Write the structure tokens for this entry.
Amino acid sequence: MKKIKRIFIYLFLSTAAIVSIFPFLWMIVSMTNKSVDVTRGKLTPGMHFIENLNNLLETTQIGIALWNSFLIAVITTVLTLLIGSLAGYGFEIYRSKGKDMIFNILILSMMIPFAAIMIPLYRLFGRISADAPFIGLDTLAAAFLPTIITAFFIFFFRQNTKMFAKELVEAGRIDGLSELGIFFRIYLPTMKTTYAAAAIIAFMNSWNNYLWPLVVLQSPENQTIPLLISNLGAGYTPDYGVIMTAIVIATLPTALVFFLMQRHFVAGMMGSVKG
Amino acid sequence: MRKNFWLLMIALLTAIVLAACSGGDDGSGNAEEEDNGDDGSQITAWAWDPNFNIAALNLAKEHYDNENFEMEIIENAQDDIVQRLNTGLSSGTMKGMPNIVLIEDQRAQSFLQSYPDAFYAIGDYFNPEDFADYKLAPTSFDGEQYGLPFDTGVTGFFYRTDYLEEAGYTHDDLVNITWSEYVEIAKDVKEQTGQAMLSLDPNDLGILRVMMQTTGTWYTSEDGTIQLEGNEPLQMALENYKELMENDLVKLSSDWSQYLAAFNSGDVASVPAGNWIGPSVEAEESQAGLWRVAPTPRLDMEGAANASNQGGSSFYVLNIDGKEAAAEFLGETFGSNVEFYQDLVQEVGAIGTFKPASEGDAYQFENEFFNGQQVVYDFSQWMEEIPQVDYGMNTYGIEDILSAEIQQYLDGKSLEDVLSDAQTQAENQFK
């Protein structure tokens, strides 16, 4: 009886595993096939990977796009973490009368869809362009500035800070650390797992961000990876082999970041649930 | 507790008001042009598809005899262009907007009518009468010509000669037929060869538009009134559609790649679509000599033509610095150069809508893949017969409503109810 149960469990788990792994497998196999074979649904690896890669390198500026995406993602991640954690820490540690109300308003701001604020935001950057072209439209700065302060990360850090032992703050004060010193020397090192989890989320969000970069980044030298892939698929006769190659290349960095921080990620997420 | 609740409500209200304000700004801002973008020395153009539209622009640049003219062509997916234009124009910030932009004909009116000041009328730079009539309504607004008509979406009935022969049909049997005859032929093909007649994506109602335009009607009338209820051509088109679906004559596809695969792998006997599908058909080299193209079937009504349109786009000039240079460039190349159009057909495979071009040599080319048929010439002839239609502002919006209703029609809801329900919904949405 126990054995049968086991078989069913494994059967179920295997099915689930196949369903979630298959798209990746298909993506990698398709990378090595010609476009016609991809549309036919060929499932065996082919010999056209080098050809697809060459086409990709010749027809697109994927190197520049990768660099842009990378730059934006890294800066976004660092700034988001810094601002989000400072704010989350502040909300949890310090006493203030109106802080819960402000926090509630912040949480509510998560409910406004980005599409609703996009046009005013675009207009704002249009105005800024006249005086400060280096952060105006069509600059990488414009692509990440609106994304670095998010209610989600403030919320995330505040929830996790609930687990942080407040006695450590008092101990730090008694030993004469400044408030910022307490944050950077005590809080930051003890909350590593939270930072790792937040870093993965922030990096992935930025890496995959499409709509805002699409409207603010107009020139090809500022193109990011999702925009490049969108262009590849836009022809009347798209080359699916090349598209798959580009998608694999675009997936690698996020996969890498995830695997590097996976252990911390799980711990960090558990923390946020417990809190 | 109570106090908190009220604070929350106030915050929620503020959030809603903020969001609403930002939405309401859409129309008002487009008159501002404080930022005129580039300094005018260099022209930028936005288009999609490097092998087609962008190749055409590059070719035009080669044919343009002007040393001071510099143009940067930026590749953007079509949906991305729509998104960028909408954001830019509705925020009234012209910075970063291109001088020349390619817009699909069925979308053009929504831009021209929403942002009339943002576009530059270019009717003086070429003679609109040189172009296929059906292209003029979508590209003009308020008596002014804004678009320079580019490629034609003239449709053809691409078919597999081997399958059709097996079912007992010759080319002559397929010329100038009606859609109901097409359905009957499809049944024979299914019976004799076991193959489906065509592939369709249920979310894409392009085929209905193709059928409807053969009679010169659309979802909306010329003054913009929505006319789904009692629209006889649409009813007829839907009946044909249902007949095809119910008799299992359609191979369903869920996206573009499956649609292409259906005919590349020989699973369907025909592809009724715009001429731009040609290169995708030819992509499967092993099927060379097995395809031909007949005129598009028409709806069984008086005055219907065996010609229709699917897709096709035109160039527009934005009302910013550099507009004269951009308009001159378009006028001298796409607007009047017959030789350029010959190269366009040969090198890019794009068929323009410039009527004088069809007498050139390149148009007489006999395509081996299609059994030596003069495909380009045939298309250019059918193009001149396409009934003119005003696509209006909401083609795609109405279609979203229709596609939901059509599922119910296939499930047995009566045609009258389907169309009157869709009519009510569309009227509410696009008031």
